[in-house]
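## retry 2 of 3
previous attempt timed out at serialization; input unchanged, resubmitting
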Amino acid sequence: MDVERIRKRFHDIEIRPYQESARTQLEALAAEMHAESMFSRMELNMDKVIRHWSLQHHMQCFRVAVRNGVVLGAVYGYATSTFFSDEMFAHVKGIWVKSEHRGSAAFILLLDSFEQWARDQGAILGFLDQTTALDIERSMNLFEGCGYRLIGVNSVKEL
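## retry succeeded, writing output
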């Protein structure tokens, strides 16, 4: 995927860190994300979400896609090593584009921003999963178009 071409074409989409001025929009984004996720049966703790997203830490990344002051989506993840190696990998814990903005370049620009941050942290692998049953095939096609390959499946069980 030619991300540079996408960046130029969609230059009006800004990728930036958490800003308190966008909190109301980010809370709405978190609520939508939560409602469509496998975690929807769990109580949403908005204060915890905002606390995580606003934390500026070198091993944690949160970025927001904004166009003309409107939040389109966000990505949140971290970089760490595995228990069997000191080499770093990056894990996208959540990447979400609001339903009315899906199909825009926001997802690709958010993921690219996260990957650049991860490389800056020394990560050599990126890990991306899906925690919704929403448009699984379309999501997998998008992930593959961004260079990811399917290596397993997510499974969930009520306990």
